[in-house]
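User: Please work through this fold.
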Amino acid sequence: MTAIVRDAAVLEGYARDASGLRHVPEALARPASRDEVVAVLREAAATGQAVTPAGAQTSTTGASIAARGLLLSLRAMDRVLDVDAARRTARVEPGVLLGALDRALAGDGVFFAPDPTSDETATVGGAIACNASGPRTLMYGATRAHVRALTVAMADGSVREFRRPVVEKNTVGYAPTHDLVDWLVGSEGTLGVVVEAELALLPRPARETGLGIPLPTLAEAVAFVRDARRAGGVVPRCLEYFDAEAFRLARASDPDAAHWGTDGHVMVYAEDCGDGDLALDTWLALAEAHGAHDADVRVFEGDAAIRAARRLRHAVPAGMHERTAPYLAAGGRRISTDWAVPLARAEEAILLANGFALEAGFAPPVTYGHLGNGHPHQNWVARDPDEVRALEAVVERCLKAVIAMGGTVAAEHGIGKLKARWLGLQASPAQVALMRAAKREFDPDGRMAPGNILG
């Protein structure tokens, strides 16, 4: 059986995730196998101890830290168990890093589509827990669409397999009960512990090309994204937005990009993939129609160049983490959003959020991310608890406006502990009651991941 760690110095190392929250677990287990997970859960059930599963603790919502009880770190369960390139499936343990999985699959000509920018530090289990997505969600969708089956250790230590139905038609009962895999993807550890996943894979595109396109304004960026989504001849896999400050952060991370673009300009990063040649003339015509200049457009061709472009994208949240780090000890943290609205309302929502911040005495947030899905991220640095509270009030005001536009309070990172207070802004009492009923069915004692989703 895996050892239960209670050493204070070790526990402190598992007290934070990317949210900025801090909860020191009462104990820690680091199992290396399914059997060890089962043993830990059985012992916890016998003593009534709460258990919070965690991967690499990259959650931005506090989902991967333990509000009470034991933290169950699954990082050591990092094996790719089987790859069937012909059936386009892989069986993996939850601690496999997404970047490592991509490299393991490369020789078979297939890949796992979900691509959060933290792929070199985020695990498959974590991606399943929060239904993670990433820039290429525009083409491939989020993690949910790529999970075929899950093996789950339940709160009492029993193990169950959940597999998607293969029939094309089903009229048995209420639709939400047809596929229990969907209950588990995005459940943030509240229903059980994923110990093995069967993933659906896709064939690798014959060609992948990135384009970095500086543009003069947010309005032109939104119009460019809208037109790119409906243009013929181009195959946009992602359409990522960088406001002026996010673009500056990206440029600062790469000496070769230091003089790219113009101060004050925003940027859209697009990827195009397919079997044929890149329709570069079409992309350039779209860019020029929205105020871009040919000389400013950077083309990233091939795997190495695409990875360099992804590093530019990752430099933005990484830079915001660096700005926040000096204030963590004083109770400050990064305040971030992952709301989404219909693309037609994206510019309006971003400007409203900027205005709410200014009215509260703060600078507008750094805004970047998945504009192609109407899903930008907005980040502020709160320097102390008073600023945390004030900025969370700004966020709540933003979320109410987003909901009124037909949007969502959380499009990518889940609810965790930070956003549980806002669940009721979007979910009706009936929907919340259904969630609580599912929670009681899977975890009748309420011991799994306390604080996540339902508070």
